[in-house]
Amino acid sequence: MNLRSFSLQKIPITNRFVRPFGLSVVVFTAMFLTVSAVHAQSESEPTLLSLEKAVRLTLEQHPQLGAFLHQREAYQGLVEQVSVGQRPSIGLTIEDFGGGGDYNGFDSAQSTLSISWVMQGARIDQRIQAAQVTATQVDIQRQIKALDLSAQTARLFIQALVEEQRLTLARQAQQQARNTVAALKKRVDAGKSPEFQRLQAEVELAQRELEAEDLQHVLTSTRYQLRAQWGGERNDFRLVGELLTIPTLSSVEQQFDQLKENPTLTLLATQQRIAESEIELARIEAKPQWQFSVGVRRFEASNDFGMVAGVSVPLGKDRSSAGKIRSLLARQAEFASESEALQRQLDTQLYVLLQEIKHSHHVIETLQKRIIPALNTANSQATHAYETGKLGYQQWVILLNKKLGAQQDLLSAFEAIHLQHIELQRLTGTTLTF
Fold this sequence. Notes:
By secondary structure, the chain is an alpha+beta fold. It contains eight helices and six strands, in the order E-H-H-E-E-H-H-E-H-H-E-E-H-H. It has helices at about 50-60, 65-80, 120-190, 195-230, 250-260, 265-285, 320-385, 395-430, and strands at about 45-50, 90-95, 110-120, 235-240, 290-300, 305-310.
């Protein structure tokens, strides 16, 4: 089940077990029936909601993703800010005036008008580069958040779809209990069964009714959480999906190769690049800044003009950035260590997840090929034996409940394998392409 291409089809109504991918097995009665009475119908036809559409709505409308656009704009403003260098300065100097003798008044004065500037082209270029590298992490963080939100939406979708089927099974169990009560009433009236068996069946019916009511509340809550992913207000949507499909997985080697593209690893690599860029900037800023000036001087005594020029170079070595560079080098090494540790952790998680998927596949196959077909046959024979008086009520009910339990187990196994596949896609960063 790929979140980009997973196509959900209408769940078939059947009374046989059909194993996916052509395996010939019988399906239990009405296992994956499309639920039409699970939620209230609006006056208009309810909207069909597929998994792909739910994920798309989340990515388009979830407010947490919108916040990254503002962060991106903020970083763009930072890039513009660092591209502005120190402004040139204009100076006016008047000398040799207001003194005594020849320098009385302004007759011997010298006035100089000059402009000075600092050579900072390399610094500005490096500041821009550092700001641009820092800005790239916003896109990666947005990708991580989008993957998390997509996976969360997919999990809620699958859970809601499964809960619909659980409610269907609960209502089937409720109807089965109701039929049992009716059958026992006839047997009690005919003197073929004791009264306490009818009372036991009444208790079983009440318990089944409570289970169905509880599942209805759980389903309502899950549907609310699902539409909250994109801020939806209307509840008149109908989930469409096929649960009787085992996800197709690529090879184990491909899975581990895709794991290297995990966006969290990419973010750590970007943070190392940011540290490297800041180290280079600190080294450039530690170099002496040459300040140049040029101007015009007027000699009042002779009414002449002359050009003046100057250069200023700081003395000694600037050690103000030494501590900062050392700190940045330590951070860079820290990010590298975190990246290596995360890679090992992700490798372990992926291996365990693949084993869980393999186990879920085995559970589904065993239930479909061995357990449920055997229980179908045993249930049919037990019902006949009970009706002919060859089997007691307790043994008969136990077999009926075992069949219901196996149906629930199969539904849980399909839920597990779909949720595991969603986590696999989130882990490898292949859920969506940005």
